[in-house]
Hints:
201 residues, Double-stranded beta-helix, 11 strands, alpha+beta
Amino acid sequence: MENDLLYRGGSMIAKMYLDPDTVKELRKTFEKEGSVHLTQFFEKETYEMLLRMMKKAYYQRVYEPLRCSYGVQSFHQKALQQALHEFLCTLLHVKHPLPEMKMYSFGHRDYTVLQDDVFEKKGILVQFDVTPHWKEEFGGSTYLIDKEQDFLRVLPLANSLVVMKTDSTMKRFVKYVNHTATNRRRLFLEWFYLDKQENTH
């Protein structure tokens, strides 16, 4: 499977991530740690094109005061979808159908709240962040919390891909984006690979 990395559109992805040995090491890290963080994932031109597109996109507002506030829109850039999906299937050494990908926008006063009755599903959560010049103090980080109250924090970092294992004991939220963010927005893609055993339930 590693020999198939130079798929159509593969030139969009930074060359270091198309190296079979690099992919093997990333897979080992993912299997051991349950997550892996890839920085400078796309080539510069591809990343800048995606950033421009996501900045200009229209986002449907989702607002439930006790639960969430953010913008969301479906992602339909087929070449990028396919490049991301094929890379992930190679990295994870699995075959999945092409998932639905969505774009998210979190600006000042946006958030999601940890809910007592909402848990993650068993599978793999993926986020690709395009946000440039974001500071931790702005808020907007994604938190994934397990039953032991240990957490994984995803800090917004431009041109970075984060892959995370999830299960039904985990919960997730995005920290409130405060006034120090001014007019900046955290923009990211997100999609999910459901565990195949979950599909049979």
